[in-house]
């Protein structure tokens, strides 16, 4: 499997990122797993085959030098990048007086600048492999939610996805925006409703987009659970 394609995931330590890593491993990909949580990353890498099949790299996506190191480590280890899933992000309570300015700043650095940094850091390896770029947006990135600054960050990711799709249009690189509704992940401190999507539901949608023939570019997947009102 030394020539197997390579799937890089930020925000890989739990939730949608971890579920996608498992699905990609089952599909034969080698994995580069990135997040700020080193212990969970190491455990997941071991689960998915260890050093020959999966490597864990701690990275704060809001720090450019760490993103550069992530890509350099990937190229040193595997020599290529075929799929990039820019998935790192977090939310906040609704209401423009509900969270601190410091948390807002961190959310922008992670959700918006972090995604942009991942694109910048991986765009040349993706051009070389004619690979696939995937960005995690949200239902909240398609329609404004009352009092949601998080929604504003995801609207930025949605716009970023279309902008980079246009830039890469003649390169052979595909681009997919994943826009989940409510998903039962650690994103929700109090737990999600019973009817929420599972991370594996979103992972299946991601792998559907990735598994299409090379001439098919699934640009957006908006996926809600049955029962979500908006």
Q: Numbering strands along the chain, what is their spatial order in the largest sheet?
A: 3-2-1-4-5-6-7
Question: Could you tell me the number of beta strands?
Answer: 7
The number of helical elements comes to 6
Q: Helical content, roughly?
A: 40-55%
Classify the oligomer: single chain
Structural class: alpha/beta
For the sheet with most strands, the description reads: 7 strands, parallel
Radius of gyration: 17 Å
CATH class: Alpha Beta
In short:
The protein has 230 residues and is an alpha/beta fold. The chain has helices at residues 15-26, 38-47, 64-78, 101-129, 149-167, 199-210; strands spanning 6-10, 30-35, 54-58, 83-86, 132-136, 174-180, 220-223.
Descriptive account of the structure:
- It is built from six helices and seven strands, in the order E-H-E-H-E-H-E-H-E-H-E-H-E.
- It has 230 residues and is of the alpha/beta class.
- The chain has a seven-stranded parallel β-sheet, sandwiched between helices.
- Strand 5, helix 5 and strand 6 (174-180) form a beta-alpha-beta unit.
Which key terms come to mind for this protein?
alpha/beta; 230 residues; Rossmann fold
Describe the protein's topology.
Blueprint: E1 6-10, H1 15-26, E2 30-35, H2 38-47, E3 54-58, H3 64-78, E4 83-86, H4 101-129, E5 132-136, H5 149-167, E6 174-180, H6 199-210, E7 220-223
Parallel strand pairs: 1-2, 1-4, 2-3, 4-5, 5-6, 6-7
Helix pairs in contact: 1-6, 3-4, 4-5
């Amino acid at each position: 499997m030394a020539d197997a394609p390579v799937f890089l995931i930020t925000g890989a330590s739990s939730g949608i990122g971890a579920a996608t890593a498992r699905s990609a491993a089952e599909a034969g990909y080698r994995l580069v797993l990135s997040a700020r949580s080193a212990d969970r990353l190491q455990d997941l890498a071991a689960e998915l085959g260890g050093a020959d099949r999966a490597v864990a790299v701690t990275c704060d996506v809001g720090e450019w030098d760490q993103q550069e190191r992530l890509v350099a480590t990937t190229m040193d280890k595997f020599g290529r990048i075929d799929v990039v899933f820019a998935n790192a992000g977090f939310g906040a309570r609704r209401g423009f007086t509900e969270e601190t300015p410091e948390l807002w700043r961190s959310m922008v650095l992670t959700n918006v600048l972090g995604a942009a940094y991942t694109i910048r850091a991986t765009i040349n390896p993706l051009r070389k492999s004619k690979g696939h770029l995937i960005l995690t947006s949200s239902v909240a990135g398609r329609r404004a939610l009352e009092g949601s600054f998080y929604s504003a960050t995801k609207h930025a990711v949605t716009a970023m996805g279309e902008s980079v799709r246009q830039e890469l249009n003649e390169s052979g690189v595909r681009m997919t925006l994943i826009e989940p509704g409510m998903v039962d992940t650690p994103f929700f401190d109090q737990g999600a409703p019973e009817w929420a999507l599972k991370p594996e539901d979103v992972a299946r949608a991601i792998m559907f987009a990735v598994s299409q023939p090379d001439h098919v570019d699934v640009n957006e997947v908006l996926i809600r659970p049955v029962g979500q009102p908006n």
